[in-house]
Specification:
Layout (H helix, E strand, L loop, with lengths): L8 H12 L4 H7 L5 E2 H15 L10 H13 L3 E6 L5 E6 L1 H23 L5 H8 L4
Antiparallel strand pairs: 1-3, 2-3
Length: about 140
């Protein structure tokens, strides 16, 4: 099936999944959903949410090094913009591009689907999949 862009439906889905690959991409998208954040605040926000909601897919808190790599890749993919600010001290701020915002909007129906799936299939939930992947039964 052609999506009207010259690539097939399957290829389009695979491209979207490539953009979302990486443990922290969705967390960054979600953290930047309400607006730009400085690097340190972005790191703190992502780790705070994981601490509060539990770490379903991450074994440990996000590190500065891993966040920097994730942000570099997302910037190269056109999902966010990096703003270097040197008002009183060097600072970096990140915000979603229009492309990043549309990707985030496209994820909302998928998240709703996952919530419905979780409610209907609690035994086959993400939490049990993660536990099984880590060696727990």
């Amino acid at each position: 099936m052609d999506t009207g862009t010259g690539i097939s439906y399957r290829q389009a889905v695979e491209q979207a999944l490539r953009l979302l690959s990486g443990q922290w991409v969705v967390a960054v998208l979600a953290a930047l959903a309400l607006g730009p954040l400085h690097f340190t605040k972005l790191l703190a926000e992502i780790n705070y949410v994981d601490d509060e909601l539990g770490r379903l897919t991450h074994d440990r808190p996000l590190s500065r090094k891993v966040l920097a790599g994730t942000l570099d890749r997302m910037e190269a993919d056109g999902l966010l913009i990096r703003h270097d600010e040197t008002i009183s001290h060097p600072s970096v701020r990140y915000e979603l591009t229009p492309t990043g915002q549309t990707l985030l909007a496209a994820l909302r129906p998928l998240a709703k689907w996952a919530q419905t799936y979780e409610a209907e299939h609690p035994v086959e939930s993400l939490a049990s999949d993660v536990a099984a992947a880590k060696g727990g039964d």
